[in-house]
Design brief:
mainly alpha; Serine Threonine Protein Phosphatase 5, Tetratricopeptide repeat; 2 domains; 10 helices; 62% helix; 0% strand; elongated; disordered N terminus
Length: 266
């Protein structure tokens, strides 16, 4: 029963274009902090004005934990909540869907594991649509909780385990690419570093993905600082802006990158 419901939720997320259950000057060293957008004054491009995209409702930052017994649901109530969450996810209302699933995972019913699995899907959907990479952490936590609670009769376990492994694989690949790029940049091999970083930005969402864009912006800024290229400086600005879209508010580089972009517009 729950395998069928999960399959429907996965199909709904697919409709929303996301993955589902079925499937400055250059010196001898490179700082880990972003590079300012500095080029010769005559080459400094004017900032492009881009209308902000409509905001996508982002779920809460953490997976719900069990609360009082008074909030516990019966099996039938949990099933109804799950169905409601499925409908909301199908409409792209991921935030409200997460809120409904929280009620489901708080109750130790037969649907609890399936609700955690679906919560992981929704968090991943939000991250795939370009929201904070923190949602990938939430997706991994939800998937793991689903696996911990699953019974031997749950036919979706293999699929959820595959989702979890894919997330972990993307994160490790991103970390390796950022490390390689920083090493290459230290050796002044900026073009090779850019190749690694652009590959990194094309991986699936992960907690490391914001760093891919931050280091890419810094590398482009170094190249532009040498060549005075307006085009390359524009690429640096775009990468920094994408970093801000993905980074969490507590990322220590966030205020630095904001200041760099503000100074470049003056």
């Amino acid at each position: 029963m729950w395998a069928l419901v999960l399959a429907v939720v996965a199909t709904a997320v697919t409709v929303a274009s996301v993955v589902n259950l079925t499937n400055g000057s250059a010196g001898p060293s490179v700082s880990t902090m972003p590079t300012p957008l500095r080029v010769p004054a005559a080459a400094m491009p004017q900032p492009a004005r881009v209308d902000p995209a409509p905001p996508v409702a982002e779920p809460a930052a953490s997976v719900a934990s069990p609360t009082s017994d008074a909030e516990a649901l019966t099996d039938e109530q949990a099933k109804n909540v799950f169905e409601l969450a499925r409908g909301l996810a199908k409409q792209g209302q991921f935030g409200p869907a997460i809120e409904r699933l929280k009620a489901c995972v708080r109750s130790p019913t037969r649907s609890q594991a399936a609700c955690y699995a679906s919560m992981g899907l929704v968090y991943k959907a939000v991250a795939t649509r370009g929201q904070s990479a923190k949602n990938i952490v939430n997706a991994r936590t939800s998937f793991q909780r689903a696996l911990d609670l699953a019974s031997s009769s749950d036919t979706w376990v293999t699929q959820v385990r595959s989702e979890q492994e894919a997330l972990i694989s993307d994160e490790r690949a991103a970390e390796d690419l950022v490390t390689e790029a920083r090493h290459l940049a230290k050796q002044q091999q900026f073009d090779a570093a850019v190749i690694r970083l652009e590959k990194c930005t094309k991986l699936g969402p992960s907690p490391t993905q914001p760093d891919c864009f931050k280091v890419l912006g810094s590398t482009f800024a170094k190249i532009a600082g040498r060549s005075g290229s307006r085009e390359t400086m524009g690429k640096a600005r775009t990468a920094y802006e994408r970093f801000l879209e993905l980074a969490s508010d507590d990322d220590e580089s966030t205020p630095v990158v904001r200041r760099i972009l503000e100074e470049a517009r003056q």
